[in-house]
Amino acid sequence: MAEAEESRAGGAAKPLFAGLSDVSISEDIPVEGEITVPVGSHSPDEDYSTLDEPVKDTIMRDLKAVGKKFVHVMYPKKSSALLRDWDLWGPLVLCVSLALMLQGGSADSKEDGGPQFAEVFVIIWFGAVVITLNSKLLGGTISFFQSLCVLGYCVLPLTVAMLVCRLVLLASSGTVSFIVRLVVVMAMFGWSTLASTAFLADSQPPNRKALVVYPIFLFYFIISWMILTFTPQ
Amino acid sequence: MSVSVTSGSRLGFPEPHSEARSGAERPGPVPPQPRGMMSGPGGAAGAGGGARSGAGAEWGGFEDNLQGGGSAVIDMENMDDTSGSSFEDMGEMHQRMKEEEEDVDAEAAAVDEEDGEFLGMKGFKGQLGRQVADQMWQAGKRQASKAFSLYANIDILRPYFDVEPIQVRNRLLESMIPMKMINFPQKIAGELYGPLMLVFTLVAILLHGMKTSDTIIREGTLMGTAIGTCFGYWLGVSSFIYFLAYLCNAQITMVQMLSLLGYGLFGHCITLFVTYNIHFHSLFYIFWLVIGGLSTLRMIAVLVSRTVGHTQRLILCGTLAALHMLFLLYLHFAYHKVVEGILDTLEGPNVPPFQRVARDIPVVASAVLNTTAKAIALTL
């Protein structure tokens, strides 16, 4: 900085920075001090190191972030919190709990308990990856992990439906319970699809929204079908 | 004219156009060649001179506009930043360092002598900082090029997904309508979105059918079987028919074949969706003949229009028709309750009435083939 001042004052006769192409890195002036870059979108509590805080604070902060996203999914307003600070904790928890609840429900032999868990896991993640790739290839502006985050979080209504179905099946397992389960699962399926569409469809060109919504519809349809046909043994 | 040559050649582009426009008597396809010949030597000389004079002029323009005398605001972008903190500066510094390397060495040596005495590391700090920044620049460049090549792979598929919903709907409907025009090659849209979505829909329908028929698969998963069957058919039969088309000299590319067969699965989806829910045997056979037949006829017409010679047409279309119709038959009978009924009636009193046999996949395939043959023999 000092030398620039000098060169400007001394070189008033010649045009400023005319000799810049000749000047290379001449003197090594140590740069000291603190450089804080004012970034508007970050929260103000990030300018101290988070390494010294108690572990409870760290965990609670992450849990609160996950919980806030759950609330966003249940009441899908057009906020960008879900998209901006993506994380995959919530989808992992939902996926594992759904897979655990769906386990061991289809066959009478013990061997089918294992593949059931892996099946649900693979369907959810593989399906989410395919939908994300599809939306990117159709010209979407959303990033890969943001899309995975949204699709994973929107499995929440279906997990709630699974809980309700399990409870209903504990009570009775006749036609009435089937109708109740059908209604609940269909409602939650609609909710999931609408929630994820509300977040994802904005990132697409407007005339192609239908092309992006259809795979999401298929994806949640398959998960709903697995929930509906679940019968405990 | 000379003025336009100099200013245009710096950018490289406007000059050829002005040349081509001035020589308007040249016919359409010819301009690229004379344009190249004429602008080559002129452009190179002009570009060299223009670049150098332009660089001086541009630098002068910057100084005049941005740094007024006595202004307290310093534009860091134009300053010679020794800390090397930004990558763009590192890139520029690379170029400048290559040009005046002697100056750097002389000045660095002088600095080391001056400052090395009373503040030991000061001289080193600048060079160390520069080296670290240099390495960071290289690493960043490597990572960026790796990431770019990863994304470039996705971009290879992008043109095949460039569709509108209206187009997809039209193509779905057209896949059921055979066109009689077999003297001119019929147009096939090389698009992959529709076929991919149809394959996934078929997977979903198969899952639905397997669940309602309580299919038990021991060494695999329901989902894995459905995905494997549908994708295997789409990719495998497409490749096989493409290979046959290559042997029979048919004019069709791989993407077009994938697209054609994918849209042909639309008939399968409709048939299976209806007959998995309404379990009438005769209804299935009617659907099989009518809807399966229509989509097969459409594919056959397209292939015939693109093949020359009777034998080749026969081979290609016969194979495709057989595979397509038999696949629909297989899907219906392999994953449907009806299998148990037929097995019971055919095996007679040997099989106890309420036994549900857990089936492995290879066993299923052979059982289904037997069943299918017997069913066809029964109905004929």
TrEMBL record, chain A:
The chain crosses the membrane at residues 86-105, 117-138, 150-172, 178-200, 212-231. The keyword Transmembrane helix applies. Pfam families: Yip1. It is found in: Golgi apparatus membrane; Membrane. One of its GO terms (biological process) is endoplasmic reticulum to Golgi vesicle-mediated transport. Its main location: Golgi. One of its GO terms (cellular component) is Golgi membrane. InterPro entries: Yip1/4-like, Yip1_dom. Belongs to the YIP1 family. This is Protein YIPF. It comes from Gopherus agassizii.
Automatic annotation (TrEMBL), chain B:
It is found in: Cell membrane; Cytoplasm; Golgi apparatus, cis-Golgi network membrane. Residues 39-59 have a biased composition (Gly residues). It is a multi-pass membrane protein. Its main location: membrane. The chain crosses the membrane at residues 188-210, 222-248, 260-279, 285-305, 314-335. GO terms for biological process: cell differentiation. Signal peptide: none annotated. Belongs to the YIP1 family. It comes from Gopherus agassizii (Agassiz's desert tortoise). Residues 1-88 are annotated as: Disordered. It comes from the Eukaryota. Keywords: Cell membrane, Cytoplasm, Differentiation, Glycoprotein, Golgi apparatus, Membrane, Transmembrane, Transmembrane helix. InterPro entries: tRNA_Mod/Golgi_Maint (IPR051521). One of its GO terms (cellular component) is plasma membrane. This is Protein YIPF3. The keyword Heme does not apply. Involved in the maintenance of the Golgi structure. May play a role in hematopoiesis.
